[in-house]
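Question (not urgent): is this output format expected?
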Amino acid sequence: MKLSEQVKPISYLKAHAPEIIRTLKDNPQPVVITLYGEAKAILQDVGQYEETQETLALLKVLALTNRQVEEGKLRPAAESFARIRKRLADSQSCVPCSFRRGRGTRHRGSLPVHRRSRRH
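Got this back:
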């Protein structure tokens, strides 16, 4: 169905709101609502809206990535994975503070701070 066929005046929306909302579920096309002949609002199924927002978020990530590529802010994949592995290894070798109270930890307020790292 063409979008031009989905243009409705606000008076139609007022009189047929339940019908329009039921139609949105079956028809993925949004409904354009006009006021005095000008498009003023779009009615869209929630699922379709969520898909649109997810697509928009992915496009923003792609645009940011492309900008970083153009600016030369890249790191080889092997180097990135090595950094991730190192961080994982460091975090796994760190014994939780609840097991080490009084042995190698210092507590500032309620947040524990390790002497060898300040990750907590």
